[in-house]
Specification:
By secondary structure, the chain is of the alpha+beta class. The chain contains 6 helices and 8 strands. The protein has one domain: Class II aldolase/adducin N-terminal domain (L-fuculose-1-phosphate Aldolase).
Length: about 190
């Protein structure tokens, strides 16, 4: 069942365009540790061998995603069942010009409200991201790392996917509104 969930949401992340062929990663919390996607796996076409079991202290992590330190930090500090990391293109673009993404559409405004953007020196699997992102995730269940991607937490992979998909949809609408207005200032 766990493998099928990874396959389903990996495929949905890829098909919805929020990850490239080998981008992104996902994990779920286990009784003793986590299950996380393998480094350089194709989320849109996962196999049974693409899921790695890692103990809470990081043991067994050699093949795990580069973002493993971030996932482990999140599970240590946030009460959640799953973490989804994606690279939604419109949200990434907005993260380069905004310090927070505030949806202007009704659904995004209701569900997401305001998505923080974390600016760090090294954005991929760094200790800085691992240290700072849980604090932001306590305020909002999805956070953008500037120029890199989103981290969403939820009770399961479905909730992480829903948040990621909602952020990207709201980011596209915000991007369209900004382009129709001809500026990149705050849209109000």
């Amino acid at each position: 069942m766990m493998i099928e969930e990874f396959k389903k949401y990996g495929r949905l992340l890829f098909e919805s365009g929020v990850i490239s062929s080998h981008g992104g990663n996902m994990s779920i919390k286990l009784k003793e540790g986590i299950a996380i996607t393998r480094r350089n796996s194709m989320l849109g076409n996962l196999t049974d061998g693409d899921i790695v079991i890692v103990e809470a202290d990081g043991t067994g992590s050699e093949a795990a995603s580069r973002e493993l330190p971030v996932h482990l930090s999140i599970y240590n500090k946030i009460d959640c069942g799953a973490v989804v990391h994606a690279h939604p293109p419109y949200a990434v673009a907005l993260s380069l010009i905004m310090d927070r993404i505030v949806p202007v559409d009704a659904e995004g405004s209701y569900y997401l409200k305001e998505v923080p953007v974390l600016s760090v020196e090294n954005s991929i699997g760094s200790e800085e991201v691992a240290e700072k992102i849980p604090k932001l995730l306590k305020q909002c269940p999805i956070v953008m790392v500037k120029g890199h991607g989103s981290f969403a937490v939820g009770r399961d992979l479905e909730e992480g996917f829903r948040l990621t998909s909602s952020l990207e949809f709201s980011s596209r609408i915000l991007w369209l509104c900004r382009n129709f207005r001809g500026d990149i200032g705050d849209f109000e």
